């Protein structure tokens, strides 16, 4: 246990430095307050899920202890008893532990905000503390960041309230969580979150480790702002009110450390493989840092780890990056790579495992093939089953025989409807009684087509008709954002199609407005929100709006309209929608833009050019357009032969003539 | 010939009308040399032998006739005149001389005074086979009080946001505050390719650009672009990351043109360069394994000077500052040999006395520039001022922090503080003028 000794020594060194100061404290939140790991987390809280055959919370506690934390408050909510039991049995609760662990449980926590408000109410922290989740795996030495944080607080009194720890990792890095795709604006010199100064840096190559060093004020601020739920709320609140409250948030960027939060199965997969590949050294599988009996394993070439009493059949290959727990037996002619297998598992013959995560007591029969999937405790996979990518077999599920599960299948002993019933629960917390609906579950039979003739379990599907957020919550493997080559770079074509979709949306809005008699103000609101959704400039909005309205009769009644019919149906429309126009056409330039849009349309529809005068006349009468603008457009707007031709239209010339006279008269009157 | 130099000297100096009313901007004296001398000298120092100067008829005439604005350069000047009233932008001017452009060009503005190492800019251009490389510098605060302005200068100028990558060389983003509706918008696709972007404000664009010949040809095809700084550069910067719709067009079309005309004078072979790029394992970025420059064919670079002199003389404040610093750029005797300076006068080391000046007894000249053929009589005190050519300053005057334009006559005993005296003005004796009144004078000169 040489590594452990080393860590303890380090802990002592830091504690010596802080002799006058109070011991370093940490707040560990052992609840995720979301359902990302459902249905797995229905049976086991996320913090206790095994990663490399060790519960995730043990990594977090080991990380805290090795950075010199001497007192940790573990806040549990969902399945708090299990977490408590686990911790009481672990080395952290032994009297020799350098890190004193206090377990605080309550069923009332609904968010990180509640936890921190409780920290404040109970007056737990006396000094700067480290805030982490129970699913953070890291080997970062935070003491450097802590020193910087303390220095900042000493220099300018209590302005900096938080230092967030980031790890450098370029976009596309596999431990970069697609959902947590942060872009950070920082002051490179002071390492502060900011955009105000003369020079700042925008970084897309940072990964949020979800480790933050907080001042005691953080807890107070959460109490003051009872609407803060998550750390993101807090960060946003601080940054928005920076000028008023004067609080700042800094960041600490590490190049060589490892830190990641297991926030979905995608991350679970990445972190687990990083762990086996020894990126989180000294937290490696063979180190047995949890100091449990029988957990030790040997490390050999190609990162193959074997626990005690592992038996391996004839002709089986463990290619690379494989971790096998104790008392596991593997049959003959198996092919295993990049996988983690738990304790007491049995694996048959001719099994192929690639990127498989198998937990404890799993039984795999012969001729099974598993790719990038998670198989939880007690699951049984019968003969000749194939699990394609991103499958999940939750606790005690039985699958097969002779079945191939399609990509992304999730099978659980809990019926999905149980879950849906609980959706009334506004807060996405994990704390409802599972036992409640057990009777109902039993009534429903398993579908042999889905789980095989001898199978037990229900298929969970990510329901598609939910809103996006909920869909996200359902998707265990997290968002896989395929880098779409089209949207990847700014292309004229895609921008145009953006315009096109916007145009269709505007058309739809107006149509609905007409059918349902919606007030123009609401139409404006809708168009405005579309504007933001499609990132359209105001000028384009107006041009597209003009175009849509003028094309409306064609849209509704076909393009074979005579000019008379066209104007007949268009003019009332103009009148109805004039408030919408007026909302967008305000400045002189807007008038000209609108006119050029009108012109463009009639240049295309050259058979209807005579209608243009009537349109302009109507728009003038409705006070959408001003006469000055029309005159200016007429005199200067012509850029090519076609538009010059257009201006020679007799009706138009008469109209302009009339406008000019009207102007003269009005100016005379004015005098 | 690798680069052709083009000097833009047709600007009117609209931001310092008080000075440019009588003297065109390229010929304003700075340290007793016409402004245009500085960029010419810059080019000559790095070894250019020929330069295309785009200017107005008026300037051309004055250069050839007026001895006071004699250009002390050995380079061959190819003067191209454009009409003053045509309202041509810099890009228009470049389009105008397209026929003369045979290779890549180096475009310099006539109001640039700098001691920058030009090779830095050109090296970026060469090393990355860039489409554009340019020079920028940290903006300087002007410390001197500006005549005619009370108190601090208003910061009415809109800020430019310039985004460069982690190395500080690649130009990724450019926007002016005026064009931004709601904050700075940066495309995520750029962030993905260049995860670290430094956004800088407070930079001065030196208006010095290296441009590919294809860009000049592109200008010839796109007549709507009229200004290099205002339209062309932002366009090129934006186009770096656009899908291959437009960017290869700029290059390819001209490439084809070159082939067609069979006048490929430049020895560079684009295709060969692309081949080398494909075969090499060199990469300009870290983090992923995609091609160097992510396969983009348009590249813009910027060299940002950390220290050194870099001024654009386009405002009165910059003009004064430039006069203060200009002498450091060349080593010539502060007092011209042909000037007649009395022994019993005090001339500070940081002052310049022009040719055939007459400085009489008991005068004191500190931190000032005295132009050619200027007469300064007894007991005159000149501090922190710029006196242009042919000025007469009568006895006992006290001039402080002012600019006196050519051929002005300052009456006996006048006391002038922080004023701008227009060209050929007569200031009454014993008058006292402070910041309050200079507008009268500057108006008088423009009247």
From TrEMBL, chain A:
Subcellular location(s) of the protein: Cytoplasm, Cytosol
Gene3D superfamilies: 1.25.40.180, Hexapeptide repeat proteins (2.160.10.10), Spore Coat Polysaccharide Biosynthesis Protein SpsA, Chain A (3.90.550.10)
Record-level GO cellular component terms: cytosol; eukaryotic translation initiation factor 2B complex
Biased composition, class Basic residues, residue ranges: 1-10
GO molecular function, one term: guanyl-nucleotide exchange factor activity
InterPro entries (alphabetical): ARM-type_fold, eIF-2B_epsilon_N, eIF2B_epsilon, LbH_EIF2B3/5, Nucleotide-diphossugar_trans, W2_domain, W2_eIF2B_epsilon
Entry-linked PROSITE patterns: W2
Oligomer and partners: Component of the translation initiation factor 2B (eIF2B) complex which is a heterodecamer of two sets of five different subunits: alpha, beta, gamma, delta and epsilon. Subunits alpha, beta and delta comprise a regulatory subcomplex and subunits epsilon and gamma comprise a catalytic subcomplex. Within the complex, the hexameric regulatory complex resides at the center, with the two heterodimeric catalytic subcomplexes bound on opposite sides.
Family stated for the protein in its record: Belongs to the eIF-2B gamma/epsilon subunits family.
The name this protein goes by in its record: Translation initiation factor eIF2B subunit epsilon
Organism from which the protein derives: Oncorhynchus kisutch (Coho salmon)
Organism classification: Eukaryota, Metazoa, Chordata, Craniata, Vertebrata
Automatic annotation (TrEMBL), chain B:
Pfam family, one: LbH_EIF2B
Domain EIF2B subunit epsilon/gamma LbH: 338-429
SUPFAM superfamilies cross-referenced by the UniProt entry: Nucleotide-diphospho-sugar transferases (SSF53448)
GO MF: guanyl-nucleotide exchange factor activity; translation initiation factor activity
Chief location bin: cytoplasm
Gene Ontology cellular component list: cytosol; eukaryotic translation initiation factor 2B complex
InterPro entries for the chain: eIF2B_gamma, LbH_EIF2B3/5, NTP_transferase_dom, Nucleotide-diphossugar_trans
GO biological processes: central nervous system development; cytoplasmic translational initiation
Annotated ranges, domain Nucleotidyl transferase: 5-140
Superkingdom field: Eukaryota
Function: Acts as a component of the translation initiation factor 2B (eIF2B) complex, which catalyzes the exchange of GDP for GTP on the eukaryotic initiation factor 2 (eIF2) complex gamma subunit. Its guanine nucleotide exchange factor activity is repressed when bound to eIF2 complex phosphorylated on the alpha subunit, thereby limiting the amount of methionyl-initiator methionine tRNA available to the ribosome and consequently global translation is repressed.
Family: Belongs to the eIF-2B gamma/epsilon subunits family.
Protein known as: Translation initiation factor eIF2B subunit gamma
């Amino acid at each position: 246990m040489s590594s452990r000794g080393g860590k303890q020594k380090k802990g002592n060194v830091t504690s010596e430095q802080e002799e006058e100061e109070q011991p370093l404290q940490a707040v560990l939140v052992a609840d995720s307050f979301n359902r990302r790991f459902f249905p797995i987390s229905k049976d086991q809280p996320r913090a206790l899920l095994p990663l490399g055959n060790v519960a995730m919370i043990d990594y977090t506690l080991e990380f805290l202890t090795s950075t010199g934390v001497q007192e940790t408050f573990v806040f549990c909510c969902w399945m708090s008893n299990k977490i408590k039991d686990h911790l009481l049995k672990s080395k952290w609760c032994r009297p020799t532990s350098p890190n004193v662990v206090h377990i605080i449980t309550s069923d009332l926590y609904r968010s990180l905000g509640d936890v921190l408000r409780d920290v404040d109410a109970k007056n737990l922290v006396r000094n700067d503390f480290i805030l982490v989740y129970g699913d953070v795996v890291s080997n970062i030495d935070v003491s450097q960041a802590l020193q910087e944080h303390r220095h900042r607080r000493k220099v300018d009194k209590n302005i900096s309230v938080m230092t967030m720890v980031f790890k450098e990792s370029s976009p596309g890095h596999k431990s970069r969580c697609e959902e947590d795709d942060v872009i950070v604006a920082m002051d490179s010199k002071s390492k502060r979150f900011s955009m105000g100064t003369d020079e700042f840096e925008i970084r897309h190559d940072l990964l949020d480790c979800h480790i933050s060093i907080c001042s005691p004020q953080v807890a107070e601020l959460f109490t003051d702002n009872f609407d803060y739920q998550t750390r993101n709320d807090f960060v946003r609140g601080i940054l928005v009110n920076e000028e008023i409250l004067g609080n700042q948030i800094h960041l600490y960027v590490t190049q060589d450390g490892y830190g990641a939060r297991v926030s979905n199965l995608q991350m679970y997969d990445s972190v687990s493989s990083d762990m086996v590949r020894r990126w989180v050294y000294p937290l490696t599988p063979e180190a047995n840092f949890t100091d449990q009996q029988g957990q030790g394993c040997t490390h050999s070439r190609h990162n193959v780890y074997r626990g005690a009493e592992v038996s391996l059949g004839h002709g089986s290959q463990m290619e690379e990056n494989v971790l096998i727990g104790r008392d596991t037996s593997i049959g003959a002619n198996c092919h295993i790579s990049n996988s983690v297998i738990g304790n007491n598992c049995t694996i048959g013959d001719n099994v192929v495992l690639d990127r498989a995560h198998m937990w404890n007591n799993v039984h795999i029969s012969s001729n099974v093939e598993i790719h990038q999937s998670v198989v939880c405790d007690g699951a049984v996979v019968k003969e000749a089953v194939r699990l394609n990518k991103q499958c999940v077999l939750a606790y005690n599920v039985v699958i097969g025989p002779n079945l191939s599960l399609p990509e992304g299948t999730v099978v659980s002993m809990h019926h999905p409807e149980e879950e849906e019933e609980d959706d009334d629960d506004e807060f996405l917390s994990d704390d409802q009684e599972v036992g409640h609906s057990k009777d109902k579950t039993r009534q429903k039979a398993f579908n042999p087509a889905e789980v095989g003739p001898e199978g037990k379990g229900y298929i969970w599907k990510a329901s598609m008709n939910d809103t996006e957020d909920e869909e996200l919550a359902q998707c265990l493997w997290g968002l896989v954002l395929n880098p779409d080559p089209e949207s990847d770079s700014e292309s004229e074509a895609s921008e145009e199609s953006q315009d096109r979709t916007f145009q269709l949306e505007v058309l739809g809005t107006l149509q609905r407005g007409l059918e349902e008699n919606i007030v123009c103000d609401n139409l404006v609101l809708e168009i405005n929100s579309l504007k933001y959704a499609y990132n359209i400039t105001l000028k384009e909005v107006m041009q597209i709006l003009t175009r849509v309205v003028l094309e409306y009769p064609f849209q509704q009644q076909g393009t074979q309209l005579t000019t008379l019919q066209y104007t007949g149906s268009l003019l009332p429309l103009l009148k109805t929608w004039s408030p919408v126009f007026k909302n967008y056409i305000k400045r002189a330039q807007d008038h000209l833009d609108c006119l050029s849009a009108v012109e463009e349309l009639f240049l295309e529809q050259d058979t209807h050019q005579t209608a243009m005068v009537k349109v302009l006349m109507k728009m003038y009468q409705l006070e959408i357009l001003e006469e000055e603008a029309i005159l200016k457009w007429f005199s200067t707007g012509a850029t090519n032969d076609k538009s010059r031709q257009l201006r020679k239209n007799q009706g138009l010339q008469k109209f302009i003539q009339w406008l000019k006279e009207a102007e003269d008269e009005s100016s005379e009157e004015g005098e | 010939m690798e680069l052709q130099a083009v000097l833009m000297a047709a600007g009117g100096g609209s931001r310092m009308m008080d000075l440019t009313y009588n003297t065109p901007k390229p010929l304003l004296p700075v340290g007793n040399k016409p402004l245009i001398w500085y960029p010419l000298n810059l080019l000559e120092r790095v070894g250019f032998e020929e330069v295309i100067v785009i200017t107005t008829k008026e300037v051309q005439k004055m250069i050839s006739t007026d001895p006071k604005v004699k250009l002390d350069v050995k380079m061959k000047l190819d003067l191209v005149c454009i009409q003053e009233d045509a309202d041509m932008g810099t890009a228009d001017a470049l389009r105008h001389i397209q026929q003369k452009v045979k290779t890549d060009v180096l475009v310099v503005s006539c109001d640039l005074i700098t001691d920058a190492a030009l090779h830095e800019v050109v090296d970026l251009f060469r090393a990355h086979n860039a489409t554009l490389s340019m020079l920028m510098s940290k903006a300087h605060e002007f410390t001197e009080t500006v005549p005619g302005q009370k108190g601090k200068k208003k910061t009415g100028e809109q800020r430019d946001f310039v985004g460069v990558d982690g190395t500080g060389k690649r130009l990724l983003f450019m926007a002016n505050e005026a064009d931004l509706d709601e904050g700075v918008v940066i495309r995520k696709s750029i962030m993905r390719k260049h995860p670290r972007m430094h956004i800088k404000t407070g930079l001065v664009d030196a208006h010095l650009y290296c441009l590919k010949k294809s860009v000049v040809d592109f200008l010839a095809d796109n007549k709507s672009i009229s200004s290099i700084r205002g339209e062309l550069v932002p366009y090129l910067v934006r186009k770096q990351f656009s899908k291959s719709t437009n960017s290869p067009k700029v290059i390819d079309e001209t490439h084809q043109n070159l082939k067609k005309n069979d006048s490929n004078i430049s020895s560079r072979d684009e295709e060969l360069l692309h081949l080398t790029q494909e075969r090499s394992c060199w990469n300009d970025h870290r983090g992923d394994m995609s091609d160097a420059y992510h396969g983009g064919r348009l590249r813009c670079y910027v060299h940002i000077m950390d220290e050194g002199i870099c001024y654009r003389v386009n405002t009165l404040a910059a003009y004064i500052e430039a006069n203060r610093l200009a002498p450091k750029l060349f080593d010539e005797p502060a007092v011209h040999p042909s000037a007649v300076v009395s022994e019993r006068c005090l001339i500070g080391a940081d002052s310049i006395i022009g040719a055939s000046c007459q400085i009489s007894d008991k005068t004191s000249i500190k931190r000032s520039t005295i132009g050619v053929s200027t007469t300064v009589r007894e007991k005159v005190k000149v501090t922190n001022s710029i006196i242009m050519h042919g000025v007469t300053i009568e006895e006992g005057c006290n001039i402080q922090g002012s600019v006196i334009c050519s051929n002005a006559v300052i009456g006996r005993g006048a006391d002038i503080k922080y004023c701008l005296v227009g060209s050929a003005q007569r200031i009454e004796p014993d008058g006292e003028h402070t910041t309050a009144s200079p507008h009268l004078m500057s108006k008088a000169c423009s009247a």
